[in-house]
Amino acid sequence: MGKDILSKEETIFSLIIDGKIPSYKLYEDEFVIAILDINPFSPGHALVIPKEAAKTLDKLSSKSASAIGAILPKISRAILDVTGAKEFNVLQNNGVNAYQSVFHVHFHIIPKYEDGRGLQFPFQSSPINHDEAIILSKKIYQHILEGT
Questions:
Q1: Which of 5, 47, 69, 98 is 20 to 30 A distant from 90 in Cα terms?
Q2: CA torsion, points 117, 123, 127, 129, in degrees to nearest 10?
Q3: Catalytic annotation on 143?
Q4: Which residues of 84-94 are buried (b: 16+ CB within 10 A; e: fewer)?
């Protein structure tokens, strides 16, 4: 393998993709998985992850990039509809100096609420409420399945 492609065992996302670590799944297809972030900036903060193990966006195949591009709006709409948030950020980091902490491409969808919850500068997150995450992930998952 090239230096820009990881083995599947090297990241937490690979373990989630392989079903070795539990997650709050929102969506999954042949190329992409979406889950709730376990250290969210706000309720509904999700990660959209290609199943292809590329470190950064520029190393991702066109097929995986197309799959992510096609599903990001649908997941965003579902999160907004379910949470009631009206605005959101999409964040994607590439490299240590760009604040990437897991070296497997992923996009953050971060709902922004009128009360200020959401992406803040400086960035601050808090641990997920697991009881709320079970309910929220199921609602968003169902919303995506229903195609709204």
A1: 5
A2: 20
A3: no
A4: ebeebeeeebe
DSSP state of 28: E
pLDDT in tens, the chain (148 residues): 344 444 444 799 999 999 999 999 999 999 999 999 999 999 999 999 999 999 999 999 999 999 999 999 999 999 999 999 999 999 999 999 999 999 999 999 999 999 999 988 777 788 999 999 999 999 999 999 998 5
Q: In the chain, how many domains are there?
A: 1
Helices 62-83, 130-145: crossing angle, 10 deg rounding = 110
Question: Which tokens belong to 111?
Answer: 């709902």
Cα–Cα dist 130/134, whole Å: 6
Identified catalytic residue from 106, 108, 130, 143: 106
Q: DSSP code of 7?
A: -
Q: Which three-class secondary structure state does DSSP give residue 35?
A: strand
CATH number at residue 52: 3.30.428.10
Contact status, residue 16 vs residue 24, Cβ threshold 8 Å: no
In a domain, 3, yes or no: no
